[in-house]
Design brief:
The structure is a homotetramer. By secondary structure, chain A is α+β, with helices and mostly antiparallel strands. Chain A has three helices and seven strands. Chain A has one domain: 7,8-dihydroneopterin aldolase (MptD) (Pantoate--beta-alanine Ligase, Chain: A,domain 2, 2-Layer Sandwich), CATH 3.30.1300.20. Chain A starts with a strand and ends with a strand. Chains in contact: A-B, A-C, A-D, B-C, B-D, C-D. At the B-C interface, strand 1, helix 1 and strand 7 of B face strand 1, helix 1 and strand 7 of C.
């Protein structure tokens, strides 16, 4: 067993990328949404993530087909944002390391998977 | 003691107005915000409330002075939406009754008070 | 059109009952839960609602069958609290009026309906 | 510039630790709490974090002094959980790597800092 207390730029970037995905997921899931308001909700989520430390890019996509399906079937013609509707890519840069992470619904697992897609070193 | 199980249009409108304020408050408190993104967050909250049943109008104001103060003092130049920054007016119409409700920070109580401001009858 | 700015004890109780349901729904939806932790989550929700002004009783039931179904099918053996799992009864008393309200999933509408079940007058 | 698409066990553990802290923070901030209910809320948060993938330990502490101060000054004798009240340590183990992370309020920064405290290798 080895214990390390020094944290590298890369460690920090990975950790911060996780924070951003965990935070946005639990902040916005449940928000009322419709096909008409989805665009503005995407922008609001992008803005809120962009403000956080070390975020260099973020792209949010809400699945219009799923929103349409839910709102059509709902008695009041809207739905709540669900994990299965969300696809978010976030890029965190800490010093010379950039982590590209993403949360996207995995149909087969029926689960919103968060994962690191790539790590870029600017050295 | 008298028990009434029949609910009038007015009862329903009052109840629904409460739902809207309770919901938006707990959905959006904690969202990262800055003076630059406040306008779009206001719109996103307005949209999400408007979608809900029987809402006929909604106006959201985020106190820019408070956001500015928090973001200036914060190490990362943004802040989280707090109850004391929010002023929301929502109008719920159910049949011929309209309830105007509001959540607004009360400085003296240091509390975000939700209250019914007026009831309008269209009969 | 008649405008009324005076709010009765009954108006207030109805409005407050709505606030409680809207708030708890958007606060707790999304919380990770399993059949093993459901009991304690029910208690935590009951506690948090009980603290709020004019709440005289609250009972939370999380549908174990639905939790079991989701956790069994999930790749990581837990699920997130969803509206369809929640049945909450809350009693709000304001002066001499008591409102009994409830949020419960309606299978046919596929919607978590919030409604006033009865109003009790202690006069 | 070097791009790496292979993610190590350590990368994954760091990322997952971030997810857990980001998620719990945005899930539970805003929950009504008092000195009487703090213990049970701590347990509920611990349970919900424990359920998530690769969490091997979690300890939640809600600062009773701050809760007491807020509830005493509040008109309704309770308060909402705020970042400054929370101290959470979470341990994530992925394969042979363990990440110890923590969110704790930093008085001087007036900010809830999330950080990796140590990394343990079981090889």
């Amino acid at each position: 067993m080895t214990v390390k207390e020094e944290i590298s730029a890369k460690d920090k970037a990975l950790f911060e990328a996780g924070i951003k995905l965990g935070a946005l997921y639990h902040q916005f899931i449940g928000t009322p949404v419709s096909t008409e308001t989805a665009k503005e909700l995407e922008t609001a989520i992008e803005n809120s993530v962009s403000l956080q430390p070390w975020v260099s890019a973020v792209k949010v996509e809400i699945d219009r087909e799923k929103v349409r399906k839910w709102e059509t079937e709902s008695p009041f013609k809207y739905c709540e944002l669900r994990g299965e509707m969300l696809d978010v890519e976030v890029v965190v840069r800490y010093e010379d390391v950039e982590v590209h992470a993403r949360v996207k619904y995995d149909e087969q697992m029926d689960y919103s998977l968060m994962r690191v897609e790539k790590i870029v070193y600017y050295t």
